[in-house]
From TrEMBL:
Name assigned to this protein: Acyl-CoA dehydrogenase
UniProt keyword annotations, A-Z: Branched-chain amino acid catabolism, FAD, Flavoprotein, Oxidoreductase
SUPFAM superfamilies: Acyl-CoA dehydrogenase C-terminal domain-like, Acyl-CoA dehydrogenase NM domain-like
Pathways per UniProt: Amino-acid degradation; L-valine degradation
UniProt domain Acyl-CoA oxidase/dehydrogenase middle: residue ranges: 121-215
Species, as recorded: Pollutimonas subterranea
Length: 386
C-alpha cells in the first residue's frame, strides 16, 4: 500500500504550503487559548490528513510508512498540537483496527476515521501500568454476548474529542495473552472522562483519564474477533507509532534549528552577529549533524518497515524502530536545549518560540515508550540474536 510518488509530492507540497500559510501563523493563538481552532481542524479534514495512513479502499490516502514519515516530518515543523489532532487517527488509534480488525470492523470504522468524522484514541496506559503495559488492570468480563468493562485509562490523547477508543482490557489471566483490544464507542453508559490534564507543554493537545464503570460492549467489538490478542496488537501499533514520532522529532529539530540560525544571524554582540562566533557555530553544527543522522535513520528504518510482510512481526524492525525513537527524541531534546542556549536570555522568554518548543519536545521522550523502554527493546533483541 502506497501512493504513487508523483501524487505524493503534490500532496506534500500542498501540505508544506498549508503549514507555512495556515498553521505557523496560528501557533500563538493555539498557545494562548490552549485549543486548535475549529476552522483549522475543518481544513485538515478537507486536506485528508485524518486518513493519511488508511488505505484508499476505506477512503484514506494510503501512504506507506516512508511517506507517512515524510508527512510527520513536515507536521513537526510547526507546533506539535496540530499533529496531535490527526495523530491518533493516522496512528495509534486506527492502526489496531487496520492491522488486526475483521473485515466488518474495518468497513464500519475506517472510512469515518479517514474522513475525520470519527476521532479515535488509543487507551492502553493506566494509573498503575505505563511502561509495564502487560500489567493493565482494566477488566472485561463476559456477560452473555457482551463484555462489561471496568477500569481507568490515563493520559489518553484526544479522549475529549474521541468518538471511539481502541482500548486494551484484560479478558483472561495475568499474562500478556490475557489482554484483548476492543473498539469502545465513546458515550456508552458508564464511560466518563476525567478533567483535562494540565501539561508542561504542547498546549492545544487534549489528554485526560477515561473511566469505565461496567461499560457494556458487544463481544463483536474485540478487534479481530478473538480474545487474547490485544497485547500483540498494541505492540505492533506502537512499533509503527514509534517511527512516526521519530519523524516528528526530526521535523521539530529542523524547525528549532531554523529558529536558532535566524536568531544567530540577526543578534549582534561584541560588534558582530553571534552566528559569526565559532562557539555558536559549533552548537549549530552539532544540531545539523545530529538532525541529519536522525532523519537518515528514520528513512532507512521506514523503508525496512515497508519491505516487511504487511502485518507480520519482524523483531529486527521493531528493534530498529526503537533505535529511531530513542535517538531522534533524545536528539531533538539536545537541539532544543542548544536552541535556548543560542537565544541566551531571550530563549527563556515566552515570546521566542524556542522556549515553547523546548517544553513541547520533552514529551517525545516519554510517550509511545520512554527512552528506557526503547533501550530494553533494543537490548533484549540484541541478546536474542545469534
Ligand atoms: N510486535 C508484536 N508482538 C510483540 C511485540 C511487537 N513489537 N513485542 C512483544 N510482542 C509479543 C511477544 O512476542 C510475546 O508474545 P509470545 O508470548 O507469543 O512470545 C508477547 O508480546 C509478550 O512480549 P514480552 O514478553 O516481550 O512483553 P513484556 O511484558 O516484557 O513487555 C515491553 C515488553 C516493555 C516492550 C512493553 O511492555 C512495552 O512496549 N512497554 C511500553 C509501553 C508503551 O509504549 N506505552 C506507551 C503508551 S501509548 S502512548
Amino acid at each position: 500500500m502506497s501512493l504513487d510518488q508523483e501524487t505524493f509530492y503534490l500532496l506534500k507540497s500542498t501540505l508544506q504550503r498549508f503549514i507555512q500559510e495556515r498553521l505557523v501563523p496560528a501557533e500563538n493563538d493555539v498557545e494562548e487559548h490552549d485549543k486548535v481552532p475549529d476552522d483549522i481542524v475543518d481544513d485538515m479534514k478537507e486536506l485528508g490528513l485524518f486518513g493519511l495512513s488508511i488505505p484508499e479502499e476505506y477512503g484514506g490516502i494510503g501512504l506507506n510508512m516512508a511517506q507517512e514519515c515524510e508527512v510527520a516530518y513536515e507536521l513537526g515543523r510547526t507546533a506539535l498540537a496540530f499533529r496531535s489532532v490527526v495523530g491518533t487517527n493516522i496512528g495509534i488509534g486506527s492502526q489496531g483496527i487496520l492491522m488486526d480488525g475483521t473485515p466488518e470492523q474495518k468497513a464500519e470504522y475506517l472510512p469515518r476515521i479517514a474522513s475525520g468524522e470519527l476521532i479515535v484514541s488509543f487507551a492502553l496506559t493506566e494509573p498503575d501500568a505505563g511502561s509495564d503495559a502487560a500489567a493493565i488492570k482494566t477488566r472485561a468480563v463476559l456477560d452473555g454476548v457482551d463484555y462489561l468493562i471496568s477500569g481507568t485509562k490515563r493520559f489518553i490523547t484526544n479522549a475529549p474529542r474521541a468518538g471511539a477508543f481502541t482500548l486494551m482490557a484484560r479478558t483472561g489471566g495475568a499474562e500478556a495473552s490475557g489482554i484483548s483490544a476492543f473498539v469502545v464507542p465513546a458515550g456508552l453508559p458508564g464511560l466518563t472522562l476525567g478533567k483535562p490534564d494540565r501539561k508542561m507543554g504542547q498546549r492545544g493537545t487534549k489528554t485526560c483519564d477515561v473511566n469505565l464503570d461496567n461499560v457494556r460492549v458487544p463481544a463483536a467489538n474485540i478487534i479481530g474477533g478473538t480474545p487474547g490478542k490485544g497485547f500483540k496488537t498494541a505492540m505492533k501499533v506502537l512499533d509503527r507509532g514509534r517511527l512516526h514520532i521519530s519523524a516528528l522529532a526530526c521535523g521539530m529539530a529542523h524547525r528549532i534549528l531554523g529558529e536558532s540560525i535566524a536568531y544567530a544571524q540577526q543578534r549582534k554582540q561584541f560588534g558582530q552577529r553571534i552566528g559569526d562566533f565559532q562557539l555558536v557555530q559549533a552548537m549549530l553544527a552539532d544540531s545539523q549533524a545530529e538532525l541529519l543522522a536522525g532523519w537518515s535513520l528514520v528513512q532507512s528504518v521506514a523503508h525496512r518497515y515497508d519491505a516487511k510482510v504487511s502485518g507480520a512481526r519482524d523483531p529486527e524492525v521493531s528493534m530498529q524502530a526503537s533505535c529511531a525513537k530513542m535517538f531522534t527524541t533524545e536528539m531533538v531534546g539536545r537541539v532544543a536545549d542548544r536552541g535556548v542556549q543560542i537565544h541566551g536570555g531571550s530563549g527563556y522568554i515566552n515570546e521566542y518560540k524556542v522556549e515553547r518548543f523546548y517544553r513541547d519536545v520533552r514529551l517525545l521522550r516519554l510517550y509511545e515508550g520512554t527512552t528506557q523502554i526503547q533501550q530494553l527493546v533494543i537490548g533484549k533483541q540484541l541478546m536474542q540474536s545469534a
